[in-house]
Specification:
- The protein has 166 residues and is mainly β.
- The protein folds into 2 domains: 98 residues, Distorted Sandwich (Glucose Permease (Domain IIA)); 48 residues, no CATH class.
- Helix content is 4%, strand content 34%.
- It has 1 helix and 9 strands; from the N terminus they run βββββββαββ.
- The strands form 2 sheets. Strands 4-1-2-3-5-6 form a 6-stranded antiparallel β-sheet, with no helix packed on it. A 3-stranded antiparallel β-sheet has the order 8-7-9, with no helix packed on it.
- β2 and β3 form a beta hairpin.
Length: 166
């Protein structure tokens, strides 16, 4: 998982264990401190904060107060906190408090639309098992200045500071 912009780390959590995939944690174990799992919050300027949640235990290499650069590694995708499957929860918000801030609209510089998960298969699913990539297309459709829709399969390419894809 990579930083979306230059900024200053204002909060991290890196000590929570992974959940068993396919099952939500016992609600009695969820607190305000662990609901988002291992996470990073970055002040990206102009009153905006980037939030990355549900990261793997021990994978967050940054610390509070550290300056980060766009494209810098912030951690690995995980399954911590109130979640039933490994994924990245990302959003931009108007304050440093994860639960006390409002989300802000944003768009993604670029991604490749690589297909879509079948709505019927998703609705009929009783578990997370199976091949969720069946809807992949042979070609990837480049998209710029957009946001992927629900059930889209996307490819992201990291870019260096010079704009060169890695």
């Amino acid at each position: 998982m990579l930083a979306v912009a230059d900024g200053t780390v204002v909060e991290t959590l890196n000590t929570l264990d992974e959940q068993l995939p396919g099952k939500l944690p016992d609600p009695a174990t969820i607190t305000l401190q662990n609901i988002d799992g291992n996470h990073v919050v970055i002040d990206i300027g102009n009153g905006m904060y980037a939030f990355y949640a549900h990261l793997q235990k021990g994978s967050v290499p940054v610390k509070k107060g550290q300056l980060v650069k766009r494209g810098q590694v912030l951690g690995k995708l995980g399954n911590t906190g109130n979640t039933s499957a490994p994924h990245l929860h990302f959003h931009v918000m108007d304050g440093a408090s994860v639960l006390g801030s409002s989300g802000l609209p944003y768009e993604i510089d670029g991604f490749g639309l690589a297909g879509e998960v079948s709505t019927e298969k998703f609705a009929a699913a009783t578990s997370l098992e199976g091949d969720w990539g069946e809807g992949r297309t042979k070609t990837v459709d480049p998209r710029k200045g957009q946001f992927p829709l629900d059930l889209n399969i996307v490819n992201f390419v990291a870019k260096t500071g010079a704009g060169k894809a890695e």
